[in-house]
Amino acid sequence: MNLNQRQIQHLYLRTGFGMPYPYIMDRVGKSAETLVDELFSQSDKFEYLKVIERKRFTYLNHSDLPKEYRATLSRDSLIYRDVLRNAWVRKLAKTDTPLRERMTLFWHGHFASRDLNPLTMEDQNNMLREKGLGNFRDLLFAISKDPCMLRYLGNTLNREKSPNENFARELMELFTLGRGHYTEQDVKNAAKAFTGWTFNSKLEFEINSYVHDDSEKTFMGVTGNLGGEDILNIILEKKQTANFITRKVYKYFVNPETIDENVISSLSDSFYKSGYDIGKLIKQIFTSPWFYDEKIIGQQIKSPIQFLTGMHNLFLIDMPDDKTLMGVQKDLGQILFAPPNVSGWPEGREWIDSSTLAYRAKLPTQLFSGMDWNNFASRFRNVEKADLPAVIAGYLLQSPINVSLLSEDLNFKASTTDLIREIAIKLTQFPDFQLC
Description:
This protein has 22 helices and 4 strands. It has helices spanning 5-15, 21-25, 32-43, 54-58, 67-94, 98-110, 118-131, 136-144, 147-152, 166-176, 184-193, 228-237, 239-253, 261-273, 278-286, 304-315, 322-332, 354-367, 373-377, 388-396, 403-407, 416-428; strands at residues 197-199, 205-207, 217-219, 222-224. A hairpin with a 2-residue loop joins strand 3 and strand 4 (222-224). It is globular, with a radius of gyration of 24 Å. The mean pLDDT is 94.
């Protein structure tokens, strides 16, 4: 299937955070298969996020450290959590591996967690980046042994004599099966199987055999001396896990509100038969003709991070200073490494209310401060002045608009650069600019 400009923009907005106008125009007429293969090829050359001093924060919670040093590290952890957040925003905006980063962002929301130690958050983020396009089995095993997750959901307190059910419950409800596909007895016995799953002072996973429950347990019809890995394997054998993950991927990358059950069923069957190959699932979605249907293009509300990083890619603006960047994340309502709860961030229309919409309308003007408009205008050097409103609108908006309304009051006697700046600023005020 060969793609037009709008379809290519659709692909890059959903698999990443948008692309510059010349990059898109160079690919007009290429097939979806070619462009998706290119995205996967780019993703092979990813780099880890590394901004936290490993040696310093490995022993943040070590009881043997002097009290004064622990206090200093605790204060520094607050600072470096913001450093980590800003570093990832900048990486998302400037990445050469957009699909890899977008998948990392997806799994970051799916396996929502947070920690006081910025190093465990960075480690988890890099694990999601490494495994996010691989096999879901590997990813699930890794997140289940991840220090950030184990501490966030209280499994470090899960002991034989006082089982903590938080991780076992969320594992099934939010990460794999979905509500209604397990029993309370399954939760209790899964929690027993995960007793002792913790990590040591070096932030390495380990099972504390002294507090592990090695009694016979029954989970989803299977009886035996089940451990945590047995629970994960039983869950993965269930076709419902493939159904649940496929639906979550579809809602994130395609449409969170209008679900095509036939498509979900077909994708889920393929995902399960592939042995949970995430890359194959993603490729199947983005190379399918239905993905480029008019009822899907321009129908998704940009998340705050999509909106922010998209501004960089659409206009090549410089990201603001660290303090401003943190403020923008807070005001938009999505702070990386700080999901509101274990369910992760909201979707679709939940991103928008009167307050956030008003802020989104003002933000572009704030970010445009000091922007090199000549650089942006140079992309449209071959476009006739009279055609600029339609051409720029076709680039910045995924929903068609009445260009005559945009053209009213434009100063066509101004320089080309000034005219382009005026058009671009006006377009960012359109409600359609919030859609991708």
